[in-house]
């Protein structure tokens, strides 16, 4: 193995994994240590890599030819794509040890774990040999000293951890996409998951909640105080917030809605009134809406806004004032490809398309799916009986509701088939 004899594992988190042909197959998410019956440090037996579609697999160290800060390279063989399952005598180093409160002997100095290093012996065995511990200092203005000490000198690395901080684990997770971070949270014990979720800022937590199964969403929201829960709901898209609140008892819904700002709560209240399985229940109430006298240049600037999802930014809906839902009279929509082909100074009223009948709030999901597939649309307008735009159904809304209710649950999504898949590469 072309690798340093000491590797600090937190620095490997997120590093790309390549097969022998140089193709990326995933990213490192953790390392697996095997506990020993003696006091010797745990043996490191492999890495956990995250593959496409959120599948986490085991990579044996025996099959890894190179490890460094930029890449992990696999040797020849077969890559086993069976989902990784931790055994009773194993530990996930980053998940279980980062931020753990420990004492360093002699003297019993308290601190928290910020990293763990594995070292290779002359016989080629890797073990968790050193721990980076930051002292606890009671001062608010200065961080404690960082010590790198032998595993045997640290007390508190085994057993159930007390409530602990989250800074170091968050630093490992901070570059993940919301869907990948949601996936990582599902691997954590409930208490640890709730600690990490609570430490995220409101916007980040809102994005992550939208990617979690409903059960986990409810449990994380319940672990927050109600003021914080309302703040997070305000950061969610109204349709996602409505979906989450619909999982709560009506009295709890009312409490949280009352704590939200009226401008944020009102569209959520409206969405909660619609019958499940209809356009009203799955639509977003905040599509891109512009008046007919807006220019093509203004429309292009609007859909470039980074917070818009691709499905929302794919078209502009045109209506009379007011521009917030429910709008004035709905006139039609303009797809972004049409915007790219027209002169920037042209008005939207001159290029608007209205030859496809809009949805009604009561339109059932099967009919929505059929019509979107028929016309190859990524979004469709929803209008009320007064021809006012009240929202838009996007293709991601439809997919969320067509898939099984528990499709985000890893235990369901990754349930193995009768024949486990493998790829040419390296054996896990």
From TrEMBL:
Signal peptide (residue range): none
Domain CBS: residue ranges: 283-349, 352-410
Keyword Transport applies: no
Keywords, alphabetical: CBS domain
Domain of life: Bacteria
InterPro entries noted in UniProt: CBS_dom (IPR000644), CBS_dom_sf (IPR046342), Mg_transptr_MgtE_intracell_dom (IPR006668), MgtE_N_sf (IPR038076), MgtE_transporter (IPR006669), SH3_actinomycetes (IPR058838)
Protein name as catalogued: CBS domain-containing protein
Species the sequence originates in: Micromonospora reichwaldensis
């Amino acid at each position: 193995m072309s690798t340093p004899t000491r590797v600090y594992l937190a620095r490997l988190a997120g590093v790309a994994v390549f097969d022998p042909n140089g193709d990326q197959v995933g990213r490192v998410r953790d390392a697996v240590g095997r506990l020993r019956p003696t006091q010797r440090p745990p043996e490191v037996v492999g890495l956990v890599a995250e593959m496409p579609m959120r599948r986490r697999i085991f990579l044996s160290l025996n099959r890894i030819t190179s490890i460094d800060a930029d890449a992990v390279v696999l040797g020849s063989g077969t890559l086993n794509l069976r989902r990784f399952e931790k055994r009773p005598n194993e530990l996930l180093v980053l998940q279980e040890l980062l931020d753990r409160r420990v004492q360093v002997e002699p003297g019993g100095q308290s601190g928290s774990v910020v990293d763990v290093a594995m070292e290779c012996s002359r016989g080629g065995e890797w073990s968790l040999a050193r721990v980076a511990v930051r002292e606890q200092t009671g001062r608010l203005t200065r961080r404690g000293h960082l010590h790198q000490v032998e595993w045997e000198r640290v007390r508190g690395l085994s057993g159930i951890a007390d409530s602990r901080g989250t800074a170091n684990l968050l630093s490992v997770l901070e570059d993940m996409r919301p869907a990948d971070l949601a996936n990582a949270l599902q691997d954590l014990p409930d208490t640890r998951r709730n600690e990490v979720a609570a430490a995220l800022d409101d916007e980040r937590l809102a994005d992550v909640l939208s990617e979690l199964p409903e059960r986990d969403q409810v449990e994380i929201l319940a672990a927050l105080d109600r003021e914080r829960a309302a703040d997070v709901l305000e950061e969610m898209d109204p349709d996602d917030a409505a979906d989450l609140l619909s999982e709560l008892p009506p009295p709890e819904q009312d409490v949280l809605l009352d704590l939200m700002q009226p401008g944020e709560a009102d569209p959520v209240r409206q969405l909660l009134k619609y019958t499940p399985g209809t356009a009203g229940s799955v639509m977003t109430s905040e599509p891109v809406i512009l008046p007919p006298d807006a220019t093509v240049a203004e429309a292009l600037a609007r859909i470039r806004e980074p917070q818009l999802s691709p499905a929302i930014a794919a078209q502009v809906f045109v209506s009379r004032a007011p521009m917030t839902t429910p709008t004035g009279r709905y006139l039609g929509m303009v797809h972004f490809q049409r915007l790219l082909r027209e002169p920037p100074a042209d008005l939207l009223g001159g290029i608007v398309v209205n030859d496809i009948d809009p949805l009604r709030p009561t339109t059932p999901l099967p009919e929505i799916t059929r019509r979107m597939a028929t016309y190859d649309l990524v979004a469709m307008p929803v209008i009320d009986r007064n021809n006012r735009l009240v929202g838009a159904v996007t293709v991601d809304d439809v997919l969320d509701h067509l898939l099984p209710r528990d499709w985000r649950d890893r235990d369901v999504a990754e349930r193995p088939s009768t024949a486990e898949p493998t790829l040419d590469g390296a054996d896990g």
